[in-house]
Design brief:
The chain contains 5 helices and 9 strands. With 180 residues, the protein is an alpha/beta fold. The chain has a 7-stranded mixed β-sheet with strand order 5-6-4-3-7-8-9, sandwiched between helices. The longest helix has 14 residues. The chain is globular.
């Protein structure tokens, strides 16, 4: 199936929520993909096809919806899943990275022992908006000793210019929206 066909199928399922999380923002809600097994399978199958010839040592996922897409992919590929979470959510020793978001600031954490030292890591999230979270997550994985080369997002919002914050990553999205 071609990218345009995949995008059209997913676009038909993605729910749009105006004025969320604040007035003037159009929120692209991917939970409708999860509620439709055919669409959910399409995303995971598309990930598998995209990375068929790529070797990774782990898959890192960003809390929380990134977990949903990264988990089945990691299981299919027989790869460890590395969780990137907000402060106070991971037990044990973590390292952190402060990030700037479109709506404020936050901090990401990862278990240092979960990141393969020198290993190639695929970074996964549900939606790529401004790139702030993903840039911080990539920096966190690198700080922990991993190598991030590729980034996967189900939805991309290139009009928010995320590529400028992620210049060294190969970015793959299945559906791109050019405006709100």
């Amino acid at each position: 199936m071609y990218k345009a066909e995949i995008a059209a199928k997913l676009d038909a399922v993605i729910r749009r929520v105006p004025n969320f999380p604040k007035p003037g923002v159009l929120f692209y809600d991917i939970t409708s993909i999860l509620a439709d097994p055919e669409s959910f399978r399409l995303v995971i199958d598309s990930m598998e096809q995209r990375y068929l010839n790529d070797e990774f040592d782990a898959v890192a996922a960003i809390e929380a919806r990134g977990f949903v897409f990264a988990s089945p992919f990691a299981v299919r590929r027989g790869l460890p899943l590395v969780l990137i979470r907000k402060a106070g959510k991971l037990p044990g020793e973590t390292i952190s990275q402060k990030i700037s978001l479109e709506y404020g600031e936050d901090e990401l954490h990862v278990h240092l022992t979960d990141v393969p030292q020198g290993g190639r890591v695929l970074l996964v999230d549900d939606l790529i908006a401004t790139g702030g979270t993903l840039s911080g997550a990539a920096a966190l994985i690198r700080k922990a000793g991993g190598q991030v080369s590729d980034l996967f997002g189900v939805v991309g919002l290139p009009f928010l210019k995320y590529a400028g914050k992620l210049p060294d990553l190969e970015i793959t999205t299945l559906v791109d929206y050019q405006g709100e």
